[in-house]
Specification:
Helices cover 21% and strands 44% of the residues. It is of the alpha+beta class. Strands 1, 2, 3, 4, 5, 8, 9 and 10 form an eight-stranded antiparallel sheet that branches. A four-stranded antiparallel sheet has the order 7-6-11-12, covered by helices on one side. Helix 1 packs across helix 2. The chain starts with a helix and ends with a helix.
Amino acid sequence: MKVFKTISAYVIAATLGVAGLGVAGLGMMGSAAVAQEAKERADTLKATHGAWEVRCASENCLIRQVAKNEQGTPVVEVNILKLEEPRELEDGDNVVAIAIIVTPLNVILPSGVGIRVDDKNVAQMGFLVCTVVGCESRPPLRQSTIESFNAGGTLGLLTAVPTTDGPKVIKVDMSLTGFTAAFAEL
C-alpha cells in the first residue's frame, strides 16, 4: 500500500503542483524534483464517497480508487482530476478531466488501457510512461465520459499481459458507487 500512497502524492504534485499546467504538460512531469516535492507534500484524505476517496494536497484535489486482488494487493490505481476550465473539442464535446491510471509493470505497452462502463467501451488510451511504481496512462475524460461514469455501476479497465501462451487480456472491475458525489467535490 505504501507504493500507491507514494504514487498518489506524486500524481497530486506532478499534475496539480505546477501553476498553469495544461493537458499538454501532463506528460512532461516526472523529474527528480517533482518526485522530491511529492514526498514533501503528503496527500490528505478529505472525504470518502462510496468507493471513491477525495484526496488533497493544499487546495489541489483529485478523486482516487485503488482496486485490489483477492489477496488484498493493489493492482490498479485510478486518479481523476478536474480541469479548471473545460477544453472544447472539434466534435462539440468538452474535455473536463484527466484520469491517471497506474497499472503494475509487465503489461504489453502497445495494448494500452481500455476503459469500459458497464461493459460498454468508452475510451482506449496508450501508456504514457512506466516507472518503478508501474505504468501510467493519462486519458483525457470528455464530459460524455463523466456522464457515463455518473450513470454507470462498474468501471472496467482492460490491459494485456504477456504469458507463455501469448498475450492475456486482464480486466479489473471497479465500483462507480459514490463517483458522482466525489467528482462534484472537485
